[in-house]
Amino acid sequence: MECDAKGKESVFVALSPEHRIHEAGVAEAIEPAAVALRGEIEPPYRAVAVRRQGTTWAVGAVKLEVWTLPTELEGDELTLVVEANGERTLTVDGRPALLGLEALERLAAGRSAAYVLQAARLDADVWEVRIDPL
């Protein structure tokens, strides 16, 4: 990809072809990076563009699982642990919580009997989610 922007790196999340969230680095590199990725990976994804030389940048991306969660959820990071014995623990920004437990369990239903769900707020009610079986 070619981009005249100053700086060495840009990180962004593409929620759709039109909706991108700048996370770090050079904002001007987002559009050319997204254009370079078009047809290679469908949103949602996280991309990193790194300047190689002059106006030449390398760009890579990984798929994300993105959920819309209830707006009443506070905090920026959630962790839900569901154990095989049925015990559940939800933390929001590292503190124990109960609000949102049912919504998270509904959305994760059928994945695994025991799992760890981690979610990070991307934008308002949009969260990046990862679920790992225990």
| Major beta sheet, strand line-up | 5-10-9-6-7-8
- Arithmetic mean pLDDT: 91
What is the assembly state of the chains in this entry? single chain
Q: Structural class, please? A: mainly beta
Domain count: 2
Give the count of helical stretches: 2
| Approximate strand percentage | over 45%
Q: How is the main sheet built? A: 6 strands, antiparallel
Uncertain regions: pLDDT < 50 for 5+ in a row?
none
Shape: elongated
Order of helices and strands: EEHEEEEEEHEE
The span between the termini is: 40 Å
Strand elements, count? 10
Fraction of helical residues: 10-25%
Give me the Rg, rounded: 18 Å
How is the topology of this model organized?
Elements: E1 9-14, E2 20-25, H1 30-37, E3 45-53, E4 56-63, E5 65-68, E6 77-82, E7 88-92, E8 95-97, H2 101-108, E9 115-123, E10 126-133
Antiparallel strand pairs: 1-2, 1-3, 3-4, 5-10, 6-7, 6-9, 7-8, 9-10
Structure, described:
By secondary structure, the chain is mostly beta strands. It folds into 2 domains: 9-63, no CATH class; 66-133, no CATH class. The chain contains 2 helices and 10 strands. The chain has helices at 30-37, 101-108, and strands at residues 9-14, 20-25, 45-53, 56-63, 65-68, 77-82, 88-92, 95-97, 115-123, 126-133. The strands form 2 sheets. It has a 6-stranded antiparallel beta sheet with strand order 5-10-9-6-7-8, covered by helices on one side. The longest helix has 8 residues, at 30-37. The protein is elongated and about 55 Å long. The protein starts with 8 loop residues before the first strand and ends with a strand. The mean pLDDT is 91.
